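In this notation, each integer encodes one residue's backbone shape. One such record reads:

___
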Amino acid sequence: MLTGAYAEGRSLLHRLPVPWKLLALAVFLVPVSLVQRPWMTAASALVVLGVYALCRISLRLAWGEVRPLRWFLLVMAPFQCWSGGWEAVVVTLGGMVVAVAAAGLVTLTTRVSEMLDGVQRLAQPLRHVGVSPERVALTVSLTLRSIPVVGQLLQQTLDARRARGLDRSVRAVATPLVIRTVRHAERVGDALAARGVDD
């Protein structure tokens, strides 16, 4: 799987075509982004949780979608609280969690083949301006696949830092993570070049 997880199911969201899922996600996120109020964040969070429940998606899979944000949230929460109070924490960071969780509903209820076919169909009009829909679908697939890979690299880097007794060192995470990520990108590029996708 592109994101490492797919939740089997027969819900309406599972059966909805990919373009409609993406449209629903965009429509849902517009008021969440525009109405910067804690009540909107709370209401949207309840909606997302309700949809997860209706789709019978386990808490383990749901947590897996937002889990990569945990360190970023821990770092940013004090700054947001200092600069804008608790409301800024709820609206900014809570809104981010809601957006990621909502996007997770799309990926968890969509098979890889369906996602790529849907993106390719949406990109068909771009063919008239010289853009290859196949390349667009490939780019999306590589982007989605990179999310869990970078997450795994981050976890490995954190484990290595802990083993060296450098729990408080930011450099001990940032530098190895950047190097590992670049190496992964180079391997992906070499694999694409070997398959003739080198332009």
